[in-house]
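User: I'll paste a sequence; please echo it back and then give the predicted structure.

Assistant: Echoing your sequence first, then the prediction.
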Amino acid sequence: MSLTRGAPAPLAPPAPPGRRAKPRVGRFGALAGWAQRHRWAALLIWVAVLAAVTLGSQAAGSAYKNNFALPGTDSQTATDLFTKHGSDQAGDSVEIVLKDTRGIDQPKAAVEKMLAKVEQLPGVADVRSPYADASAVSKNGTIGYATVTLDGKAEAMPKEEITKIIDTAEGAGSDDLQVEVGGEAVRGAEEKGSPTAELAGIAAAVIILGLLFGSLVAAAVPLITALFAVGSALGLIVLASHVFTIADFTPPITMLVGLGVGVDYALLIFYRYRQELTDGADPAEAGRKALDAAGRTVFFAGCTVIIALLGLVALGLGSLQGVALALALTVLTTMAASLILLPALLAVFGKRIQRHVLKHAAKTAVKGKSEGRRWRALASAVQRRPLPALVAATIALLALSAPALGMQLGFADAGNDPKTTTSRQAYDLLAEGFGPGFNGPLVVLAQGDEAAGKTVQSALAKTAGVAAASPAMPSEDGALSTVIVYPKTSPQSERTAELVHHLSDDVAPELERDTGAKVLVGGATAASQDFSETVSKRMPLFIAVVVGLSSLLLMMVFRSILIPIKAALLNLISITAALGAMTLVFQHGLFGVQPGPIEAFLPVLIFAIVFGLSMDYEVFLVGRMHEEWERTKDHSLAVREGLASTGKVITAAGAIMIVVFGAFMLSADRMLQEFGLGLAVAILMDALVIRCLMVPAIMQMFGRWTWWLPAPLARWLPKVTLERPADSPPAARESPNP
């Protein structure tokens, strides 16, 4: 990628008659040349890097940490005070839920024996029996629960220790006694990681690549590149977890994004390589030309994705910052593999690929078929009636986007788990015995004396929407009191959200005036609401920054005002369509999915990834149109030939990403299912509807104005070129006024 200011350099003098001018090679072509000359060294370097980071990560182990702390919110302040003053509520616990239709007093001996065993297990600090606490038994006496206090936070507990608690508790079950175990630690232990989704995605990618190229070797090259990149990135992320706060759900997301992006980038370069071979270049020259053209596109697109991901860091959303850094590192690694490892692989397999490509081209010529004829026909049809095509596509995308207006952000709890899990059954039993709000209690803190705590408890118990309020529990140092408030409605109910606001905005200030104590509303339910509202407030600024920077880069590349505006609007509509699909399926329960909120951090994460990936296709498609425009100055021809040259590879790349992302619908993790569906729908809309219909329609309607850039802005902006210098025609580089 080259940057110049002001007027371009003068054209080189013509080559002497009879001699062919040696094409100039840009930086990416030179990089490809180095990788070709030192192919085995380049391959050995990547093998060594992969081995080193894999062994290093295994030796160091992971240090993932889920941290969604939001300094300044009431819930986070309450949590900090709990920890500072030694409140029991700062710890985590597991509930062993019992149900016996005869009454839980009947199996008392067996239950107490089981609880005694649980108390001796590693990781258990204390066990409180339902027989020692009347409030832990339902009014009809058939449901009760024992509280198992852990000696650490749920996310820090080894899954093996939690599994032992589950097995020991369930061992006391009988025909009459139902025993289930609930709590966040239990939910984490039940999440069985499986490579099914990853393997399905890889298998689908191989099939699509095989159908596209008709050669096992040709299909394997982009996939090998992606696997090397993803493997290296996963090891680096494990090591980075010791330095940055990275959530434990990062590795599968990294695999998801890295595999899709890695194949995507390699495919864009490899497809250009095939075109150069078809045009008569030898394998070495084809590799240099492919990297000098498509490599620039990959570099630019990768930088755009990284910029979008790093924009998440500015949101300040706890471990989401670490997820963004990890994904940015993954994209950087895949980009490096595409620019260094891929040319080396092409040098190794170049002769075999060339024979296959030329053989296929000869068969195509015999049949009288031209490359991209169907896409050329589609572009011609859109150009004849651009407005109807644009209107129809826009209506379809807006209809799919509409449900996103009612999106409910939050965090899934055990009530959203499969009904076969013990955590879900424990959740349902507690709701049955103690009311729907029992699974999402609010923790109200009163920073004052004991009398203040009693006053706060009395007022909370009388508040509308509150089913019960526990006695005020003083901390170890007596500096604060804690009241557990049980809403009448479930944790994910809108009425519960309204209750949280009512307690924070109305009840707490009044109690502070009456008692002089500081009153804060905390707990997991309040923290989830604080996080969701913070994301909603900060998202507009995040979108503005990402869209602004990306649009500026596009303006520098294409020397156009319209193209960056068009790209930003179309990318946004593809993202809202994806969010609308997620809302329909996961919030409203379409296709039989358990209804629940959309994970609060997913919209911003999907926006960052999809906006960056959409730029891949934007740059690849419009870049080819720009090449034709610079060569011929015929706008209609440029639009038509641009789509004809790139339509096949864009849909193939999109199909690979769709199946890779869609494969994560096979995961048992709800968050990964949401993430996979959102990305798959966004890429589907982008690759088919937007790039193949809306972009050609808009560019045809605006004609030569598409390439217009005001002269003062053209002089001020640096120039970033995607085309090879040798491809530039001997014409003025600045676009003339239409």
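The domain at 25-61+214-369 is CATH 1.20.1640.10 (Multidrug efflux transporter AcrB transmembrane fold). Confidence is low (pLDDT under 50) at residues 1-22, 725-738.
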